[in-house]
Specification:
Layout: H1 5-13, H2 37-43, E1 56-60, H3 61-78, E2 81-82, H4 92-100, E3 106-108, H5 111-119, E4 124-130, H6 134-146, E5 151-156, H7 159-171, E6 178-183, H8 196-207, E7 212-218, H9 230-249, H10 251-254, E8 268-273, H11 279-286, E9 306-312, H12 324-328, E10 343-354, E11 357-360, E12 375-380, E13 386-388, E14 393-397, E15 402-405, E16 417-421, H13 426-429, E17 434-438, E18 444-449
Parallel strand pairs: 1-17, 2-9, 3-4, 4-5, 5-6, 6-7, 7-8, 8-9
Antiparallel strand pairs: 1-10, 10-11, 10-16, 11-15, 12-13, 12-16, 14-15, 17-18
Helix pairs in contact: 6-7, 7-8, 8-9, 9-11
């Protein structure tokens, strides 16, 4: 799928963006000269050699390519669309890869994120959150007015929220309605109507406004659990069935039965869910009607109504991980696409003060730790030979140190490099403004800029 010209031009311009010596890892290679993604691609320096300082986070290009295509093929076969959550990487170069692979759009959580995506020309954005900031809403109204081709969706989960959104859009001189999705939550979860009845009332309020058009329903199942037990999978499935129930309850409203203008998608509503852990369950449940998205419904549903378009919002599939999603994601259940971890953090061993303890120069400032510590994968000795990091475990992180427990007879010395896998990529990306992309020989062939 070709990228829109505006997106391609904006992303291509990043190739010549200077990478300062103040960026982590680039203090040597960028000292006294101009370095950019383009120059790195031409020179292909060794990421593990003398040109880069450690610790260094890298992205493996072969894994990125594989994951983008694997997820796109899986979604196409399942008959669903994909709007990957951009907050995972906040990297327009990576989002462009996802769009080029066939993504329906990109998901954002805040107006600030939308502003980044719009600066790079992203034509369709799903805001998976409530909007209550008047300044941000007014900016969105102006953006919708300025670009007739910009397609945007946002959440509402209450009558009060719909009224606030409507008022702010009017003060922002909105010239066309904002598409909204009625968000369904669950007890103890975050935002979202707690009952189907509340969802119907919210839809009626939104549909009765001058500035909102109800386009479907949405929710987030990821907060239901952080494991792959049958009880959690059953709870996710039950939640998805309630989301379908809300969608069915809105059929009459979308046909104008309660003063609600028709669907913002020309007769086809949207059902959106699907984080990175349980999107296989989401697809199974939200497509359970057996209808092809967009296909006219049989007798028994509203005449002319079409099966909803299911939109997944998985963000972590592109890089996958060695921890949380590798453990509880669809592939761990033999479902979903086969994904390959793309993120690696390389760091030197600083000290081995005890036979079973080594200190590594990487910490909370470099890697995520909210859903598990980094996972030792390999050791690279001083002569460049790599070996498995057998029976080594990170047990604690300080700001710049990892505490590595290992067998007393393990071969490991100061100066060796440890390759660490990542658990939960979201909170690793935001610690790096520039990330080298490497080939399978660890030659740098690109650099990704993040915009957090």
């Amino acid at each position: 799928m070709p990228l829109p010209d505006r997106v391609r031009a904006a992303v291509d311009a990043l190739a010549d963006r200077p990478i300062a010596s103040t960026e982590k890892g680039f203090g040597v290679i960028s000292a006294g000269r101009t370095v950019s993604s383009a120059s790195l691609a031409a020179e292909r320096p060794d990421a593990l050699g003398a040109d880069f300082t450690m610790p260094l986070l890298v992205l493996r290009d072969s894994a990125l390519r594989h994951n983008a295509l694997a997820m796109a093929d899986w979604c196409a076969a399942a008959g669903v669309e994909l709007a990957p959550h951009g907050k995972t990487t906040m990297a327009p170069q990576l989002i462009a890869r996802q769009l080029a692979a066939g993504a329906w759009g990109v998901t954002a959580a805040t107006i600030s994120q939308v502003q980044v995506f719009r600066a790079f020309g992203m034509p369709r954005v799903l805001i998976a959150n409530q909007l209550t900031d008047p300044a941000g809403i007014r900016w969105l109204a102006a953006e919708l007015a300025a670009d007739a081709d910009f397609e945007c969706y946002a959440y509402v989960d209450s009558v009060a929220g719909a009224a606030l959104l409507d008022q702010a859009l009017q003060s922002g001189a909105a010239t066309r309605p904002l598409n909204v999705l009625i968000e369904l939550g669950f007890p103890g979860g975050r935002t979202g109507c707690r009952t189907v009845e509340e969802g119907v009332a919210t839809a009626a309020a939104a549909g009765g406004s001058r500035t909102l058009a109800v386009a479907g329903v949405a929710g987030y199942e990821g907060g239901i659990g952080h494991d792959s037990t049958q009880a959690t999978l059953d709870a996710v499935a039950s939640y998805c069935r309630r989301l379908r129930e809300l969608d069915q309850a809105l059929h009459g409203l979308r046909q104008g039965r309660s003063g609600l203008p028709g669907s913002a998608s020309a007769g086809t509503s949207i059902m959106s869910a699907g984080g990175s852990a349980y999107f296989d369950v989401v697809v199974r449940e939200l497509t359970a009607s057996g209808l092809v998205p967009g296909e006219r419904a049989p007798d028994g549903l509203i005449p002319g109504e079409r099966a909803p378009t299911v939109v997944l919002r998985s963000g972590c599939y592109l890089t996958h991980d060695h921890g949380e999603y590798a453990t509880i994601g669809p592939r761990a259940r033999q479902h979903g696409p086969e994904l390959v971890p793309a993120l690696e953090l390389w760091a030197p061993v600083l000290s081995r003060p005890e036979p079973t303890l080594a200190l590594v120069c990487a910490g909370r400032r470099d890697a995520s730790f909210d859903q598990g510590f980094p996972i030792p994968l390999r050791v690279r000795g001083l002569h460049g030979v790599q070996r498995a990091a057998d029976r080594m475990t990170v047990t604690r992180l300080d700001d710049q140190h990892a505490y590595l427990r290992l067998p007393a007879d393990a071969e490991l010395a100061p100066g060796d490099l440890i390759c660490l896998g990542i658990s939960h990529p979201c909170t690793t990306f935001d610690k790096w403004r520039v990330i080298p992309v490497v080939d399978d020989e660890y030659r740098v062939i690109d650099a990704i800029h993040t915009f957090f």
